[in-house]
Amino acid sequence: MIRILLCCCLWLMPASAYALKIAMVLWRGETAAEQGFRDELKKLGLKPEVTVFNANQDRTALATMLRTKLEPHLASYDYVYSFGTTATLMSKRLLLGRKPLIFNAVYDPIGAGIVSVNKEDNKTVAGVSNMVFLPLQMSNARKYLPKGSKMLLPVNPRERNTQLIGEQLKSVAADYQWALETWRINPDKALLKTELLRLQQDAKESVVFIPADSYLISVAPELMRALNEAGIASICSIEAFILYHCTVGTVSDYRVQGMLAARIIVMHQKGTALQDIPVQYDPNPRLIAGNINRP
């Protein structure tokens, strides 16, 4: 009888009485999104205990880490938070629905196979996209880049996100009088200098659209320097490129994305099923143009 009463009391206690244990699986280290995530959870009355698993952009290291460090202790976590498409896909394959997965900064979670259009398939997953809808990006960019008719899209063959973006971007770019051409980049940092010289040549008289691609993010300083030195205009789709002097970008705010991910956990704690929480987007993406906010 005492045990039953104790269980009932625990069930009726507010969520803030518990310290949620969260495994944080990151692809390229912590960003403002993770700080926003922590801050929002605390603000909303939860007490997160976060353990970070950082891949440092290494798939093999991430697979080993998930298998040897997260898997043996999975039962002790309440949630798994993942940042980026690669980390999210690998986390989902490991979890197999055993723990709630809250993803962040996944450009196209449906196209990447992380969530389904069928809600019944999303019982243990929900999250936040860093997508800013392409018509808005193109409309804003055209205001600052009125000349030229050719758009070049660097495509990393190892990144499914880039291919998805290319499929979507072609028709939208055409609506704004840009003819899209894809440009294959070899995602090998040993070849980066040669690849960037080739890009400078091939992108002359073009606008370059920089997609949400993990490899391109990892070489953002070098990539943007090469484009700017050659006088090549760029449209950047995510915040990671803005600090490196992108010409124009309409981007989701990382900190806002983290806050949205935290609110998903709060909704879930209050009884909303994850399958009933749609993918979240920054409601007020920022337009940054003319190299505003340079460091």
N-C termini distance? 64 Å
Shape: globular
The third-level CATH topology of the largest domain is Rossmann fold
Rg on CA atoms, Å = 21 Å
Please report which band the strand proportion falls in: under 5%, 5-15%, 15-25%, 25-35%, 35-45% or over 45%.
15-25%
The CATH homologous superfamily name of the largest domain equals Response regulator
**Strand and helix order:** HEHEHEHEEHEHEHEHHEEHE
Largest sheet data? 6 strands, mixed
Which oligomeric state applies? single chain
Number of strands: 11
Please report the first level of CATH classification, the CATH class of the largest domain: Alpha Beta
Order of strands side by side in the largest beta sheet?
A: 7-6-8-9-10-11
Q: What does the average pLDDT come to?
A: 90
Overall number of domains? 2
Structural class call reads alpha/beta
Amount of helix: 25-40%
Task: List segments where confidence is low: pLDDT < 50 over at least 5 consecutive residues.
Answer: 1-16
Which architecture of the largest domain does the CATH hierarchy give at level 2?
A: 3-Layer(aba) Sandwich
Number of helices: 10
Protein name: ABC transporter substrate-binding protein
Organism: Iodobacter arcticus
Signal peptide: 1-19
Keywords: Signal
